Amino acid sequence: MVTFATRSVQVFEGIAQRSMRTKVGIIGAGPAGLVLSHLLHLQGIESVVLETRSRQYCEERVRAGVLEQGTVDLLNEIGAGARMMREGMVHYGVNLRFSGRTHHIDFRELTGGRGIMIYAQHEVIKDLVKARLASGGQILFEVEDVSIRDFGETKSSGKPTILFRKDGEAQQLVCDFIAGCDGSHGICRSSIPEGIITSFERTYPFAWLGILAEAPPSSEELIYSYHDRGFALLSMRSPQISRLYLQCKPDEDLNEWPDERIWQELHTRLTSTEGWTLTEGRIIQKGVTGMRSAVIEPMQYGKLFIAGDAAHIVPPTGAKGLNLAVADVRVLARAFSEYYSAGRQNPLEAYSITCLRRVWKVQRFSWWMTSLLHRWESENAFDHRRQLAELDYLTSSRAASQTLAENYVGLPME
Ligand code: FAS
Ligand code: PHB
């Protein structure tokens, strides 16, 4: 049964407002918000997704590229995985390159057959939006002036409410719960009263300059390269499109990076003594992504539950951001299901604790991969030798390789 949010008109502060009613109001149509909406629908729990950007912007924003097995399984479970299974590329390993030599980390052998899927985040978003609308979901794009109220712990008179404007008209969405899936620049986290949240943060003295190029990938699997001049990563989006990254300054000016300089630096940092060469192509997109580790505790307050980048940020080195967002909402959806089907409050009350245990382990891995593979201006000759020794150990010890492999393919979901 598909039930739409009911509509009525109320007067709030003297302004007639269109008022909608649903069970879970979801702010943000990124991986967290859209997967949550799908999972709730499968449990017969209605929700409405509110998104500031246009559908086109969300479906074209170039971001992540690596899906863990758990994320792939979940996308198939919610019926949004068919195109991913046709067009995605399954990989059973990655390569580490240093001192001109390439070392394969064999996921299949080290994790009992598990792998990863290479499938762009914006393609995942397209599939999630299409499937959710097809199943009767309500996703309101291009909303403005979003704010939330009455979600707190006090027994306030009102129900949790999301206020927003759509097509210039003031509206409100009255809910039982609000899911803050509005990313690292959203409003939900900052709506929680002072003194409730503790933030844990680390910033890095470097960023990634990323490009998309019309060039067949020069490797079947990803290459993470540690080089004297800095980190480089060879990834891909399809047999025709390469995705490549270079370590750069946090405030790098893209105008100082003409295509020729980008390719020259990639050739240098990805160089190998094994007869390998990098294929160039037309660069169709370039951008700089900052590097940060951040976690808020708790990830909930009253009837507000924070998920994904709104609750934590990882440096992209471990390819975890999207996957961690999906893991959060899997916990949250199960907790909502327990509440609505059996009246059990405990899973909702334990949401934050349940998520944070895995969040911090993924933070550790992302920090470790970032620290291991980047050149640090603060490092001295000893640190440089130590990093090389750690890479040598990592690629010559089965136990060490297995540690990387089991984290990369994805730790068990809670
Ligand atoms: P998202 O940021 O994806 O989605 C939040 C949504 O909320 C957005 O659509 C936003 O428009 C909307 N929103 C914000 N404020 C709102 C408001 N007030 N009202 C309504 N809607 C609002 N991760 C990786 O694993 N690998 C990568 O290579 C990688 N590269 C990245 C590159 C870039 C440039 C960025 C920014 C991130 C990258 N990430 C990467 C991380 C990224 O994939 C996130 O982890 C992932 O999108 C998290 O998903 P969400 O939590 O849904 O947040
Ligand atoms: C990507 O393909 O965008 C990608 C792959 C691996 C990473 C980060 C980004 O660690």
Structure description:
The chain has 414 residues and is of the alpha+beta class. The chain folds into two domains: 7-80 and 122-200 and 293-364, FAD/NAD(P)-binding domain; 92-115 and 204-291 and 378-409, D-Amino Acid Oxidase, Chain A, domain 2. The chain is built from 13 helices and 24 strands. The protein has helices at 31-42, 55-60, 69-77, 82-87, 107-110, 121-134, 188-191, 259-269, 321-342, 346-349, 351-373, 381-396, 398-409; strands spanning 6-12, 15-21, 24-27, 47-50, 66-68, 89-91, 93-98, 101-106, 116-118, 138-140, 143-149, 161-166, 169-174, 177-180, 198-203, 207-214, 223-226, 232-236, 242-248, 282-289, 292-297, 300-301, 304-306, 312-313. It has a seven-stranded mixed beta sheet with strand order 8-7-17-18-19-16-20, sandwiched between helices. The chain has a six-stranded mixed beta sheet with strand order 10-4-3-14-23-22. A five-stranded mixed beta sheet has the order 1-2-13-12-11, with no helix packed on it. The longest helix is centred in the C-terminal third of the chain and has 23 residues, at 351-373. The mean pLDDT is 95. The structure holds arabino-flavin-adenine dinucleotide (FAS) and P-hydroxybenzoic acid (PHB).
